[in-house]
Amino acid sequence: MTLPIASGALAFALTTFAPAVPVQTAKAPAPIVLPAVQTVKEQVQDYFADVPIMIAVAGCESHYRQFDNDGSVFRGEQNHLDVGVMQINEYYHLEASKALGYDIHTVEGNMAYGRYLYEHEGTAPWSSSAYCWNKDGKQLTYGPVAKIASAVTLN
Hints:
- By secondary structure, the protein is an all-alpha fold.
- It is built from seven helices and two strands, in the order αααββαααα.
- It has a single domain, classed as Lysozyme.
């Protein structure tokens, strides 16, 4: 079937006599900005910036791991009761850490209880790995003197 108006004339009529309708374009949604995610190593470095020996302890004890690849808490190779980035021993410290409000199965709780241990017992709880983090032989500390030991060079 043939239309009586040529297609060119129809287009002219529609554009000339039709009311102008603004074309609305959809705005693209603003990109979602996620907070920067720190690695466990970066968290340890930030948390223990004032106690560098504890950064070395974490590196030697766990290679800065809090979790295994399957998402379970990282456990020690020598002692399965050592957990997390600071390798806190559950047998000796689980109940005490809970009583203080620390969950040693989280990065934050493991580091916080590690700091608590360091402030009360020095680096002694990690003496079994001292061969790795105590290269100069001057970093092994005992008891509450740990707070000043990290600021004083021992001769």
